[in-house]
């Protein structure tokens, strides 16, 4: 089916999705619109006036192609999606970003695209430069560094370094963040557009900045070279080296560029110089190379001509805008400085107020403590006064007690002397009693011995009487009842008298012994009682002496 047939079946409008580096937009386009109509609509939506750097890119059959401005959109070989997707990207790059990028939106779009190319490793950048570029990107996104707000870990979700750099150095995310933050802290006071411009000024010095590479061959058999097109000219690279070109053709030195099928020819301005011919993989590549060469050459020639009225107006507006922004930034910086000074003064005043409040609180506490101390001292003084009175009373009592003790001591000395005398007398009595006891014990022993001898004599007398009786009256001994009464009575009366006399002496002796023993026991008991009384009196005297010594 032809494209003309598709157009008839399609509605009067078709949807287009425009994808920028950081946003997406959808538009409804008329069927008859050309590429320039759609491009102008997108530029108006973005507020972009420097349109010559940009284009609408799409991918067809794995190849990136730019939408042609002079042909209808639907007449070009574009994806048949709904909506149709285009990428709004920078197609041509300036030689000097600071001089050529006038609008802030232009700077911002270039900044986003170049940053993406560096992170995707389409532009090689050294690790040191990537850290510096990342610090400017952070400044553009977050503003001035504030250690109270930008705490460790605030860059954890930001992609700031190429994966090649992360793999090359065995550093943790915290270490990379620390390195970036060290640079970021030095960019204080730089506005967002200024930070993005500083980023681009560093990036434009990189070897692969703004270069579009295409594989080429010097013959039809194989591809062994790379052709690069940028703002300065055409460069020929070896297949493994995209940094240093083997050969370069500046735009000012090129007379003509043409292609025939897959062959592309570059004719130098010097007719004596050798014409450079090479082959590409397909015809579309040659068309794209020629399109980029024409656009870059036109911009190259425009830079070297007098600016048009529109460009002059834009530059004047840009200068005014920069001056206004500079003044605004200076005003904001002054206001920020004044605000910071005011905040510091406020903090100082708050600190001073807090210090004064603390001092007042401490003074109140000290006053309360002094009042409490005064009350306590008054109580102590009252207690001390009462104690003084009590001590004076005690002193008077002590003096009276001392006088009493002196009198008592005198009495005690006399009593002590008397007691010592009594003790000596008691000791003498005790010695006498001991001697008397020994004497009486000896007498009792003698009496016991005499009693034993008397009983032994009695026993012997009885035995002797019995023996005599047995010899004189043998039959009477056997039958004492047949003895004559008189004889028996007479004989026994004699013995009885003797026995009675002996018994009476023994009883008397026993009675005297018992009486003396009882007397001795009574005297011993009385003596022990007297000794106990003396001991008690002596003990009491000793206690009184101790107490009188303590009172003294």
From TrEMBL:
This protein's GO CC annotations: cell projection; cytoplasm; nucleus; plasma membrane
InterPro entries in the record = Band_41_domain (IPR019749), ERM (IPR011174), ERM_C_dom (IPR011259), ERM_FERM_C (IPR041789), ERM_helical (IPR046810), Ez/rad/moesin-like (IPR000798), FERM/acyl-CoA-bd_prot_sf (IPR014352), FERM_2 (IPR035963)
Question: Membrane topology for this entry?
Answer: Peripheral membrane protein
Gene Ontology MF: a single term: actin binding
FERM domain boundaries: 14-304
Q: Per UniProt, where does a 1,2-diacyl-sn-glycero-3-phospho-(1D-myo-inositol) bind?
A: 68-71, 287
Q: Which SMART domains match?
A: B41, FERM_C
Q: What is this protein called?
A: Merlin
Q: Which Pfam family, any one of them, does this sequence belong to?
A: FERM_N
Main location per UniProt? membrane
| Segments forming a coiled coil | 311-464, 517-544
Name its cellular compartments. Answer: Cell membrane; Cell projection; Cytoplasm; Nucleus
Q: Which UniProt keywords apply?
A: Cell membrane, Cell projection, Coiled coil, Cytoplasm, Membrane, Nucleus, Phosphoprotein, Ubl conjugation
């Amino acid at each position: 089916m032809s494209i003309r047939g598709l157009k008839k079946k399609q509605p009067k409008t078709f949807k287009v999705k425009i994808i920028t580096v950081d946003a997406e937009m959808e538009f409804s386009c008329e069927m008859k619109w050309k590429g320039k109509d759609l491009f102008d609509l997108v530029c108006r939506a973005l507020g972009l006036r420097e349109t010559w750097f940009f284009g609408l890119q799409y991918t067809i059959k794995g190849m990136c192609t730019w939408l042609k401005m002079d042909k209808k959109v639907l007449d070009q070989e574009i994806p048949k999606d709904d909506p149709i997707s285009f990428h709004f990207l920078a197609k041509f790059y300036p030689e000097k970003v600071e001089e050529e990028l006038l609008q802030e939106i232009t700077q911002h779009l270039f900044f986003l695209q170049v940053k993406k190319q560096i992170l995707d490793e389409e532009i090689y950048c050294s690790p040191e430069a990537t850290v510096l570029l990342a610090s400017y990107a952070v400044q553009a996104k977050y503003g001035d560094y504030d250690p109270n707000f930008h705490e460790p870990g605030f860059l954890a979700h930001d992609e700031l370094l190429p994966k090649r750099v992360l793999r090359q150095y065995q550093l943790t995310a915290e270490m990379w963040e620390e390195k970036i933050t060290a640079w970021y802290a030095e960019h204080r006071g730089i506005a967002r557009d200024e930070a993005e411009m500083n980023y681009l000024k560093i990036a434009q010095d990189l070897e692969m900045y703004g270069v579009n590479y295409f594989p080429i061959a010097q013959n039809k058999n194989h591809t062994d070279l790379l052709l690069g097109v940028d703002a300065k000219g055409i460069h020929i690279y070896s297949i493994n080296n995209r940094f240093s070109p083997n050969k370069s053709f500046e735009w000012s030195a090129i007379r003509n560029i043409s292609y025939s099928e897959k062959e592309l020819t570059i004719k130098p301005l010097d007719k004596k110089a050798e014409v450079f011919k090479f082959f590409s993989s397909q015809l579309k590549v040659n068309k794209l190379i020629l399109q980029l060469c024409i656009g870059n050459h036109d911009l190259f020639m425009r830079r070297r001509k007098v600016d048009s009225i529109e460009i002059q107006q834009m530059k004047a507006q840009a200068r005014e805008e920069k001056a206004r922004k500079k003044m605004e930034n200076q005003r904001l910086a002054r206001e920020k400085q004044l605000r910071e000074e005011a905040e510091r003064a406020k903090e100082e005043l708050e600190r001073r107020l807090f210090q004064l409040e603390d001092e007042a609180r401490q003074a109140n506490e000290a006053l309360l403590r002094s009042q409490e101390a005064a009350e306590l001292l008054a109580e102590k003084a009252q207690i001390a006064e009462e104690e003084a009175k009590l001590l004076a009373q005690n002193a008077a009592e002590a003096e009276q007690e001392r006088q009493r003790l002196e009198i008592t001591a005198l009495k005690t000395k006399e009593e002590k002397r008397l007691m010592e005398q009594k003790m000596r007398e008691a000791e003498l009595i005790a010695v006498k009693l001991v001697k008397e006891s020994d004497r009486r014990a000896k007498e009792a022993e003698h009496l016991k011995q005499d009693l034993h001898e008397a009983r032994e004599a009695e026993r012997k007398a009885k035995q002797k009487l019995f023996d005599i009786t047995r010899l004189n009256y043998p039959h009477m001994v056997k039958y004492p009842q047949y003895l004559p009464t008189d004889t028996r009575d007479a004989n026994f009366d004699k013995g009885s008298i003797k026995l009675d006399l002996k018994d009476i002496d023994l009883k008397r002796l026993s009675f005297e012994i018992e009486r003396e023993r009882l007397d001795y026991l009574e005297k011993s008991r009385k003596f022990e009682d007297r000794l106990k009384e003396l001991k008690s009196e002596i003990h009491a005297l000793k206690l009184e002496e101790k107490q009188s010594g303590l009172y003294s």
